[in-house]
């Protein structure tokens, strides 16, 4: 299930670096709250994005949505609105499982980062 939709540095999932993996997890988390269209997700992303100084552009969010839909983690439907229709996305059971995967992965990383910082502070106390 964990794959890759980004290219370039940081585009890898699982053990990958960069912020692309946070985009997928953040989109899933927002969709766990309620179904939404891409523009709304873009507007709400800063509420949950772990690296706020590196917020992705909207095209990255739409690529993540397309990837998640292809994987069965998100189900999308077109709805009529004022003007053009909107594609509304909602989380599936597969998406809930993937969100749980990311939460567990981030918990492991947080534990490791705390251990690193504690060690650093012992070696390099503030002056």
Approximate helicity band: 40-55%
Task: Indicate the mean pLDDT.
Answer: 86
Q: Which stretches of 5+ consecutive residues score pLDDT under 50?
A: 3-17
Question: What sort of overall outline do the alpha carbons produce when their principal axes are compared?
Answer: elongated
Say how many strands there are: 3
The number of distinct helices, counting runs of at least 4 residues, comes to 4
N-to-C CA distance: 47 Å
Largest sheet geometry: 3 strands, antiparallel
The CATH class, by name, is: Mainly Alpha
Q: Give the name of the CATH architecture.
A: Orthogonal Bundle
Which class of secondary structure composition applies to the elements? alpha+beta
Strand content: 5-15%
Protein name: DNA-binding transcriptional regulator, PadR family
Domain Transcription regulator PadR N-terminal: 27-99
Keywords: DNA-binding
GO molecular function: DNA binding
